[in-house]
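Holo prediction — NDP.
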Amino acid sequence: MTTKQPARLDTEAGLIYVHRPADGTHITDLPLQQAVHVAECAARLRAAQPEWERIGVRGRIKWLARYRQWIVDNTDRLISIGAEEGGRVRNEPMLETTLMVELIDYYSRSAPKLLEPKRIRPRSPLVLGKKLTEYRHPHRLVGVIGAWNFPMLLTIGDALPALFAGAAVVLKPSEVTPLAVRELIRGWQHIGAPPVLEAVYGGGDIGVAVVDEADFVQFTGSVATGVRVLERAAATITPVSLELGGKDPCLVLAGANLERAANCAVYGGFSNNGQVCMGFERVYVEDSVYDRFIDLVVAKVRALRSGTDDNSDVGALTFAPQLDTVDTQVRDAVAKGARLLTGGHRIDRDGTWYAPTVLVEVDHSMEIMREETFGPVLPIMRVADAQEAIRLANDSGFGLSASVFAGDVQRAEQVAAQLEVGAVNINDFLINMTCVEAPQGGWKRSGIGSRGSDYGLLKFTRTKVVAHSRIPIGDSEINWFPYTPGRRKAFRGAIRLFHGRGLGRFGF
Ligand code: NDP
């Protein structure tokens, strides 16, 4: 049985070895790049960017429409590559290709309006007679660094709004899953699009080089790496948007449709094998419905089929070291008094397999309730009432999203208002992520900024205000030098006229 995959980076041979997590076998090698390659790539992209900006948003939309068609035409192949390099069931990469098309459609509709110059209508007497216009200019070179769990969406998906904005983009996929991204770059070249999108391949040092070269960094990954990116970017005051880890809670309250809550808890906990930043990592269930909920969940988890063929539900762990993380957290919980209802062990076959696991009698002294697990484990805790569920849900350094299951939507909305997270799905899971019109971002250590929505495009731009006088102007202004008592009095009178009330406007 091969559970460990061989080292992925071979610096001596200058290669990245890419493996199938499902059985540990070798797929292919990629040349391992160095910081100098990132610098050369950045120079090429910077040279191509001005023309990309010059053709305007309508010109860019035409290219992105062609790219959309290429993605649609090649969807099955992209899904196959994403499934193979990630050890995933095909449904998971299918979500990525679907959302990439959704993103292109949404920004094709919204980008022209978002990027058009906006007239500012000042009310202040200080700018009386002036005309001000706000323009949006792209950051010239955007660096996108992505994680391995949704490798297409977290690289190309984030590059798309930057391209609409007029930026050039350098992508750094995880060394663990570079192949689908390489294919998507080939697609961009295949349609003959301007050379404003490239990828660089390597490990963390290549990520560092991307941060050094880029004018804006879009990062998705762990909190620890996010902190490193933030520190590195601080040296050059490079703006960043960080989409980081989560420990998302699911709250099940009395009166909820328990069948739906159980189906959703199992989907939310085990889709993409638990390797979803917004996956359910802890469940809090009100006492009166706890026993019934547990019975339903355990039966459904036992019915999950591990594998990667079309009749499977749960794939392999994409990143081999995750096996140890998951196993260590499960063992820590059991050692501290948790009870395993199903799973809790590796699956005895080649590749990186862990049995879908349900833990009960857990509490917040256990790592499994506090640290991100990112694997197929659902720890479930009994709570007295909704208030205790809210208190425990908020007892976390993370704040990505949450779900609330309740019979009464108004009650669920009251609970949602008290949760310290960037999104709450009521009687559901992941709606905020699959809706490209909604902002998706974390509170607390889960990130800075958000993707999707208008903000997801505007963050790749800088504002520039251009102001001039609408009326004929003389040689000077009343508040310029020289400061004299007469000019000061006239200025004061003008301000009083605007800010005063009633007779006070005239100095009475
Ligand atoms: P990592 O933080 O380990 O890596 C993320 C990316 O950063 C990879 O491409 C990695 O390269 C690169 N990298 C590593 N070191 C540096 C560095 N010093 N500077 C710049 N880049 C660097 O995350 P994982 O890939 O393990 O992804 C899992 C994490 O991502 C989880 O915490 C998950 O919650 C989070 N995530 C968050 C999402 C969100 O939207 N909030 C969505 C999906 C995942 P390499 O892999 O080659 O070492």
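READOUT: The mean pLDDT is 96.
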